[in-house]
Amino acid sequence: MTTRRLSLPAAAVAAAALAFSACAPLPATAPADIAARSFSSAFELQGRISANDGSRAASGRIEWRHEHDTDSFALLTPMGQIVATLDADAAGARLRTADGQSLHADSAEALLPRVLGTEVPAGRLSRWVQAAPDAGAEVRTLDDAGRPAIVIDQGWRIEYLEYAGAAGDAPPARLDISRGDARIRLVIDSWTALP
């Protein structure tokens, strides 16, 4: 009996110690190191794109030349025929379709949905395709090489499914961009930084 009386208070003290330690704040852990990523203000890329908004969908090839504040997009069928070209600069955006239509707007963001069938954050794409989000974006998770794996930017979720190599600065090869019903999938087949 004496042994039991001594072990109960000891057990109670141990349980209390565990309870108090569970309430104590956890020690801070150092954030995972983010691999150094450069942002190129001029590049060319070629790839495959699919987009849908839950009711409309489009897919094909994309060729994109981005130089500072100027963008030139060519959207092609999977077989390589041009569906539309879109050029945008500080003066506005111009969309020309294969059937001869020509449209003008203030920005590429206003015209790309006419081709892809869904809202497209054209002004943010140049950072997203480089996995180099700006300071306002939240990097949620990193991959094993310290590169962004999931980024949230102005309500958009950008998932980097594959990079073009194992190096920390390798460009993305596959990404999935979504917000609500809007989804854009991009496979980058070639990437060239321009001077």
Question: Helices, strands, pairings?
Answer:
Layout: H1 2-23, E1 42-52, E2 57-67, E3 70-76, E4 82-89, E5 92-97, E6 102-105, H2 108-116, H3 122-128, E7 138-142, E8 148-153, E9 156-163, E10 172-179, E11 182-193
Antiparallel strand pairs: 1-2, 1-11, 2-3, 3-4, 4-5, 5-6, 7-8, 8-9, 9-10, 10-11
What would your notes on this structure say?
The protein has helices at residues 2-23, 108-116, 122-128, and strands at 42-52, 57-67, 70-76, 82-89, 92-97, 102-105, 138-142, 148-153, 156-163, 172-179, 182-193. The chain has 195 residues and is of the alpha+beta class. A hairpin with a 2-residue loop joins strand 10 (172-179) and strand 11 (182-193). The radius of gyration is 25 Å and the shape is globular.
Task: Give the tags.
11 strands, alpha+beta, 195 residues, disordered N terminus, eleven-stranded antiparallel sheet, globular, 3 helices
How is this structure best summarized?
With 195 residues, this protein is an alpha+beta fold. The protein is built from 3 helices and 11 strands, in the order αββββββααβββββ. Strand 5 (92-97) and strand 6 (102-105) form a beta hairpin.
